[in-house]
């Protein structure tokens, strides 16, 4: 089974090309760029052994979530799980919840498959495809109990801010896929992006903030090694949790 060696999220940090372009996930046509990374032998074995069980191929038609997970239950969509450390932890502490996870960075997909095997997790499925396509074609409106977007690329430069994932149109799409009472949980370690997230999420009429501003970190979200290093250096982390009205 092969996977794209490209991702819909980020350009190299110093790349100034195409400054007028929005985030690739917001475009009608996909635009992927290379991300460095190599699949290890362990990840390759996980693809071969666990891929047939836990990978869901993209299909341009609604996905039967009960059949995909082999059980009925609340489903949370995770967009961009990196190397899957937090995803595996959350799936462990919330065993009754099903997690549909979108990531097209092959080493990250392999790393999460490896964690699934090592930790005997059964409530994760991975779709190595553009999350917008998955939302538009595979998931029915009102089908999700939650959405997780943890530490998306902050696009630090002001002229690149339009490339950020959390934008009004995308948030509206996410909100429409939530069940009543469902939630969106975003987290970032870049304060200007946190401020934009708060503004955009607060402006969506389908959503209601669960806090006065930023939310306390929910207990299910772990502190990753990267996050712990940042905290030791005095960097902040901001969580936002909004419910579907």
Q: Any key phrases for this structure?
A:
globular; alpha/beta; Rossmann fold; 245 residues; two-stranded antiparallel sheet; disordered N terminus
CATH topology: Rossmann fold
State the end-to-end distance.
Answer: 41 Å
Which secondary-structure class do the elements indicate?
alpha/beta
**Gyration radius over CA:** 17 Å
Number of E-type strands = 9
Inertia-based shape = globular
Weakly predicted, low-confidence segments: 1-17, 27-34
Query: Can you summarize the main beta sheet?
Result: 7 strands, mixed
Q: How much of the sequence is in beta strands?
A: 15-25%
Q: How would you name the oligomeric state of the polypeptide chains in this document?
A: single chain
Element-level helix/strand string: EEHHEHEHEHEHEHEHE
Q: Could you explain the architecture of this structure?
A:
The protein is α/β, with parallel strands linked by helices. The chain has a single domain (6-244), classed as Vaccinia Virus protein VP39 (Rossmann fold), CATH 3.40.50.150. Helices cover 33% and strands 19% of the residues. The protein has eight helices and nine strands. The strands form two sheets. It has a seven-stranded mixed β-sheet with strand order 5-4-3-6-7-9-8, with helices on both faces. The chain has a two-stranded antiparallel ribbon with strand order 1-2. α3 (85-93) links the parallel β3 and β4 (98-102). α1 crosses α4 (106-119) and α3 (85-93) packs parallel to α4 (106-119). The termini are far apart. The model is unreliable at 1-17 and 27-34 (pLDDT under 50).
Would you spell out the secondary-structure blueprint of this structure?
Layout (H helix, E strand, L loop, with lengths): L5 E2 L25 E2 L6 H14 L10 H5 L5 E5 L5 H9 L4 E5 L3 H14 L4 E4 L3 H8 L5 E7 L17 H9 L1 E11 L2 H13 L3 E3 L15 H8 L5 E7 L1
Parallel strand pairs: 3-4, 3-6, 4-5, 6-7
Antiparallel strand pairs: 1-2, 7-9, 8-9
Helix pairs in contact: 1-4, 3-4
